[in-house]
Structure formats: C-alpha cells, structure tokens
Design brief:
CATH architecture of chain C: 3-Layer(aba) Sandwich
Structural class of chain C: alpha/beta
Organism (chain C): Alkaliphilus serpentinus
Radius of gyration of chain A: 23 Å
CATH superfamily of the largest domain in chain A: Periplasmic binding protein-like II
Number of domains of chain A: 2
Keywords (chain C): ATP-binding, Nucleotide-binding, Transport
Domain ABC transporter (chain C): 3-230
Order of helices and strands of chain A: HEHHEHEHEHHEHEHEHEEHHHE
Shape of chain C: globular
Oligomer: heterotrimer
InterPro entries (chain C): AAA+_ATPase, ABC_SmlMolc_Importer, ABC_transporter-like_ATP-bd, P-loop_NTPase
Chains: A alpha/beta (298), B mainly alpha (229), C alpha/beta (235)
CATH class of chain C: Alpha Beta
Pfam family, one (chain C): ABC_tran
Distance between the termini of chain C: 36 Å
Radius of gyration of chain C: 18 Å
Chain lengths: 298, 229, 235
C-alpha cells in the first residue's frame, strides 16, 4: 500500500518532471529548429529578418496534408517557419482584412478577387486546382449516376426533386460556397427536411453522409483519405464546374507594421516556382496513385 | 463501436511508436494547462481565502459574479483574448497571437475563477475557525495566511485539480488564440477537433484515450492524497 | 495581565447583546463567568481575545490597547477546539514555531508539557484520531506551552469525560499557581467555578449582574436572577 507521504512525494515528483519536460519541449523546440537551420552552412543565405510567417488557409487545405508535405522543404531552404492557421474561407479572408495573417492560400476565386480589388491584398496568383466530386450511397437508389452522367447540376436537381438526402457543409466554407453557387445556377433554394445543413468540417460531413446514406459535395482529397472507412462512392466527377482553383495572396503590408511581407513574397515566389509546382503535383501519388492537386501557376 | 475499438488499438500503437509528434502534442498540452493552473493558483488561492474569511462591502455581489465566471464558456474567453492580443488589438505589440503564451493567458483567465470559487467555498466552511485559532496562538497576518493554506490544502488541491481538468479539456479558447498550428500550438483537444473534422475518428479517439489516462493518473494521485488523511 | 473593560457594547442585527459599563479584572485573578445561555458570556470573551470587535467602548490590557505584543501573550481555548491536520506533537509545538524558537527547545518544552498532562503517549498520533477528551487536552497543552499571561477558557471542559475534566482542571490550577497568570473561565458548571476560581461574575441579558469572590456570589447572591440561576444549577 501507498503511504500518504509516498503518494505525496510521488505526486510532487511526477508533476515537477512533467512541468520541466513540457517546459523543455514546449519552449525550446521551435527555436532549436530555427537555430539548426540558421547554423546549417549548406543553406542558401536568405536575407529575411523575420522568419515567422502566418499563412491563413482553409481547413480542407490543411486537412489534405499538402502543406505538411511541401512546407518543410520551403523551411529547409529559407529558414522561414510557416505557421499555418486553418479556418473557414470567410474567416481566412477576414484575417487578411484585419492584418492578422501575412499570406492567404484559399479557394474562392470571386471573393479573392474582391479582396485584392478592395486593397486588402497585393496581388492574387493561381497556384493549383483540385476538383469537387459528388458522393453518395453505393446502391445509388435515385439512379443519379445513370441519369446525370457528368452533369453536376442535373444530378443535384434529381436528388432535390426526388427528396434524396443532401448533406451540406453549411459553414460558409469554400466547399459550401461552391455548392450554393450550383444551387443558384439551378434556380433552386435548397431547404426542407432532406437538406441537412451540418455546420461541420468536410470529414465530419462525409461521415454523416455515409451514415445517412445521403449525397454530398466534397473535395477529392478528403474523400480519398477516408475512402477505406466509408461505403459512399463517387457519383459525379469531371464536370468543369467542379474544378476548384486555389489562389495565393500576400496581405497588404500597410495594414500594420507586424505583417511579414518579405517572407510572404518569398513563399509566393517559391510556391509558383518550378520546384514548388512539381512538389504539389507529386503529393498524394504514392498513396492514392493520383495527384490530389494539379499545379497550374502561370 | 468499431471506431472506439480501433481507436484503442491505434492509441496503443501511437504511444508505442514513440512518434515525436504525438508526444510533443501531449507535452504541450500539459505544459500549457499546468502553467495556467499554477499561475491561476497563485492568484486564486489568496483571493479565495481572503473572500472566505473577510467581510467587505459588496461581497455577496462579488460572489455571484465569481460563480457566473466559473461557468464562462471557453470560446468566449478565447474570443475576448483574441481581440486583445491580435496584431491590430490593443496588446498586438506583444506579438502573442498564435503562441503558447496566448493559450496560457486564455486558460489562466478561464481557470482562475474556478479555483477562486472552489477555494472560497472550502474556506467558508472551516476558515473562520482556523483564523481564530491562529490569532489566539499569536500568529501574525502572514503566519495566519500560511496556516490557512496548510490546513485547507486538501480543498485547495482539489480546486487546482478541477481547474487543471477544465484547462486541459477545453478546446474553444486554445483553438481561437493558439490557432492549432502544427509543432507550435497544437494541443490534444485541438488535435481531436481537427481529426474529427478530417473524419479521422481513430486518431481523435486515440488522443481522447490519452487525455483520459492522464486525467485518471492525476485523479488517482489526488485520491491517494485524500485517503492518506 | 490586568484587564479594564470600558463602556463596552455589542450590537448584532440591531439587537444589543452586550452592555458592560465598566469592569476590572485585576492581574493574577482567576475569574469564572457564569450565567444562562444567551447571556453574552461567549461574546464577551471573544471580544477580550480580540476575535470580535466591540460596537462601542474598549478594553485595555495592562493599560494598553490590543496590539501584537499583547496578542502574543494571551490565548483562548474553545469548547470545540480546532486541531491542526497533523500530529499531536506538531499541534502543541505550533505556537512555539510561530515564535521562531529553535527545535531543541521546542522538543524539551513539548515533552515537558505532555508529560505533565499525561498525553505523552499520544504525541505521534494524528490529531483527527483523538477522542473528545484527548483533543481538548491537546488544545490546552497547545495554549499553555507559550506561557500566556492571559488564558481564556470558553466552556473548555464541557462535554468531555470526567477523568479528562479533572486532568484538565489540575493542569489549569497548576498553571495558575506557577505562572501567576490571569485566567478567565466561562463555565456553566458552578461546582467547577467554585473549585477553581477566586472571583466569579454572573452575567444575564448582556450585562454583568453581580461579581465578587466565589463564596460571595455562589453562597450569598444579592440579585434575584443570580439566586434563581444558582438554585437551578445546584438542583
């Protein structure tokens, strides 16, 4: 049996060990990494003073794993540490507007162009695209695949008119905006018991769709990463209207003096370069046998 | 159910794999929550004790406010802290946004009322007797305070554990002010939220299990500590 | 210690519960305060001990107001004492630790007093394992160890077993005789007051009705209220 004294000293030792350990990890690690890169003589000397860069992007971009794949290479080359803050598209643009981020990587072209036109960003560059797909139950009870073929709006109309379950992100994300624009094109105001506005991330929505045997619009990357765990299959793909263009924008540095415009420009230059573009194209090939993002910088 | 079972397997795999990332996430969680609990305790213990043994004007009103603050939603705390420390906010110059310091600030604000309220409750029960005893034995103000802390140690410790439990399990505040940045501000709860939104349930459950095990260890130690009395 | 009470009143929730125009407790007296429940006995001694503040009036200790030096030189034992959550030894040593006395001397003095009070066997026990009588003896030892010149006992021997009562009475008597301290003892037990005290004050309705030597007040009370109270107590 434990005596009280033993329990007390054990508790004390455990807590202090944890605190010290976590202090060590929590505090020193990021700096250590930076120092490592700074001291590495093989590194190209980069004349950027501030090596911290905040990239605001959408949850789906981060969840795809692309940034974890390409950004370490960028950091190794430049010593710049990109801190990725993943939020909804609306929030990502708002962060740029408020000067809380240095650079944005988002996929809502119209909003992005408006963002630059309003003077919040310097310039918008095309980076890459991926595509959306419509997924649904394997049995496809509404025969959407047969009837609509490649036509996404036709498919959505079929689901709506036959009271099929449609799960919407409902969170003002890029995917949600895309879905709404397609409904608008159809002249349909989506509502009713079979239109589920989830207010959640893509992965959660795919899972809901699978459980409810409904249909949803998703980006290909998230679907591929979950393909093994779910029963839902691709119902519609390849419609040009489903292509999802990503843009990168440096936030206007005049917003406040903390915006790291130098590093932002370096990142943009790198991501648009041959090397950056090649890396984007390679991502996902080994795991899914296909690229998740198609680089298309001009 | 399959997810939970697979989550348990996955959590064991994760912990055994000695994957640096998961340990970094766990340690950052502990670091942030323990630090904020300790800072909160430094403020909350004296304040709670003084509130418990002293009479002062508006005391009842203050206690009602304190009890309300004990139930503050983390997202509200996160949002307020975010508005203060963001680059364009009044404290923007300190460059705290999206750092572990920002998470510590938010959790400290969240946890301080909880510890204060619980210490106040514990002191209200027995504090008067202890104070009187200290006085009759000739203790000065500092010695009285030390004696109160010593004698109320069990309820103070329980208050700190509750505060820590709140800090380590909340996601709203750290998500907003920390930003869930990989290698920087990603903690257990934000990882769970992110994995859920990515549809990776097993990873979310794995970290959830780690969180539970850690709570269990802390609470078992508390239990031993109380049983020893 | 010489205690002078002047125009003391205490009002609680708009009710005057204590009104003592003037009362003198000379140095080295052993005063028993008797009276029915609600007479204001406990309030009075709490104010003397500095644990409560009077609404008006004041108390002078050796012709001074209450200060830390006076406070360190007096103590009070309650009916239900609070024992620190530690061993008996540490409980009794605590007042000496507060006074920065070195460990060896603390040890000597603690051993001496627990020997005198017959509780040496308890010294390593945790305070919360003691019986009522044992706890009360520990509280008394803790009060006496720093040689206070004013000792206040508020029903300190109520509700404990007779053998513990006698042990405590012996210890109190012994302390009084050896240290020439002033002792104020609130008790409902008139026989105890007769056994120990050399002066007795009878309180009723917040005032001191009469006071004098023990024999005067107990055997020849002048006020009707005192007579009734004492008669009932002896029944």
């Amino acid at each position: 049996m434990f005596s009280r004294k033993k329990a007390k000293s054990l508790l004390f030792i455990m807590l202090s060990t944890l605190l010290i350990l976590s202090l060590a990890i929590g505090c020193t690690n990021p700096n250590d990494e930076k120092n490592e890169f700074n001291e590495n003589p093989d590194n190209k000397e980069i004349a950027v003073e501030n090596k911290d860069l905040i990239l605001s992007t959408t949850t789906s971009t981060e969840n795809s794993g692309l940034l974890d794949y390409i950004l370490p290479v960028f950091q190794e080359e430049t010593g710049i540490e990109v801190k990725v803050v993943a939020v909804g598209t609306g929030q990502a643009l708002k962060m740029g507007e408020d000067g809380e981020a240095d650079v944005l990587l988002v996929h809502a072209k119209a909003s992005e162009e408006e963002f630059v036109a309003n003077g919040h960003g310097v310039e918008r560059y095309d980076v890459m695209y991926n595509d959306f797909i419509l997924i649904g139950p394997k049995e496809d009870p509404l025969k959407v695949k047969e009837a609509a073929g490649k036509n996404i709006t036709e498919a959505m109309k079929l689901i709506f008119e036959n009271n099929g379950t449609f799960v919407s992100r409902g969170d003002d994300s890029g995917t949600h905006k895309k879905e709404l624009s397609l409904w608008r094109e159809l002249g349909i105001e989506p509502e009713g018991d079979n239109y589920i506005s989830a207010g959640q991330g893509m992965g959660a929505v795919i899972q809901m769709t699978d459980e409810m045997k409904g249909y949803t619009l998703t980006d290909r990357a998230t679907y591929l990463s979950m393909m093994e765990e779910i029963e839902a299959v691709i119902v519609v793909e390849g419609d040009e209207r489903l292509f999802n263009q990503y843009g990168i924008i440096a936030v206007d540095p005049s917003k406040n003096d903390k915006i790291n415009n130098e590093a932002a420009n370096l990142l943009i230059e790198w991501i648009l370069s041959e090397k950056g573009q090649k890396l984007i194209g390679e991502f996902g090939k080994d795991k899914y046998g296909q690229s998740l993002f198609i680089p298309n910088a001009k | 159910m399959r997810e939970i079972y697979e989550g348990i397997i996955k959590s064991i795999e994760l912990l055994l794999s000695l994957d640096g990332e998961i340990y970094r996430i766990i340690l950052l969680s502990l670091y942030v929550s323990l630090t904020s609990t300790l800072i909160s305790a430094l403020i909350a213990i004296p304040v709670g004790i003084v509130m418990g043994i002293k009479k002062f004007p508006f005391k009842q009103g203050m206690i009602r406010v304190l009890y309300t603050f004990m139930g503050l939603p983390p997202v509200i705390v996160g949002l307020v802290v975010y508005l203060f420390i963001r680059r364009s906010g009044p404290l923007g110059n300190l460059e705290l946004i999206f750092t572990s310091a920002a998470m510590i600030i938010a959790q400290t604000l969240l946890v301080t009322p909880i510890i204060t309220g619980l210490v106040y409750n514990g002191t209200k029960e027995g504090g008067e007797k202890i104070k009187n005893l200290a006085k009759t034995l000739g203790a000065n103000k500092t010695q009285t305070m030390i004696l109160l802390i010593k004698e109320l140690r069990i309820s103070i410790f329980a208050a700190m554990v509750s505060g820590y439990g709140r800090a380590v399990s909340e996601v709203g505040a750290v998500m907003i002010v920390g930003g869930n940045i990989r290698h920087h501000t990603r903690v257990m709860t934000t990882t769970i939220a992110m994995n859920h939104s990515m549809g990776q349930t097993d990873m979310a459950i794995a970290i959830g299990i780690v969180l539970l095990i850690l709570s269990f260890i802390v609470n078992s130690l508390l239990y031993r500590f109380q049983q020893g009395e | 210690m010489d205690i002078q009470i002047k125009n003391l009143t205490k009002t609680y929730n708009n009710r005057k519960i204590l009104a003592i125009d003037g009362f003198h407790i000379p140095s080295k007296s052993f005063l028993g305060i008797i009276g029915p429940n609600g007479a204001g006995k406990s309030t009075l001694v709490k104010i003397i001990a500095g644990l409560d503040t009077p609404s008006t009036g004041c108390i002078l200790y050796n012709h001074e107001g209450l200060n830390q030096r006076i406070n360190r030189n007096m103590t009070m034992v309650f009916q239900k004492p609070y024992l620190l959550r530690t061993t008996v030894y540490n409980n009794i040593a605590y007042p000496l630790k507060l006074r920065n006395i070195n460990k060896e001397e603390i040890h000597t003095r603690v051993q001496k007093i627990i020997g005198e009070m017959g509780i040496a066997g308890l010294q390593h026990q945790k305070a919360w394992t003691l019986s009522g009588g044992e706890g009360q003896k520990v509280a008394l030892a803790r009060a006496l160890i720093f040689n206070p010149s004013l000792l206040i006992l508020d029903e300190a021997t109520a509700n404990i077993d007779p053998s513990s009562i006698y042990a405590m009475e012996d210890a109190i008597k012994c302390y009084y005789e050896n240290n020439h301290a002033t002792i104020i003892m609130v008790t409902h037990n008139i026989k105890q007051a007769k056994r120990l005290c050399n002066t007795v004050a009878f309180m009723n309705g917040g005032v001191i009705e009469e006071s004098g030597t023990s024999d005067e007040v107990i055997y020849n009370p002048t006020k009707e209220a005192t007579k009734t109270f004492i008669k009932e107590a002896f029944l």
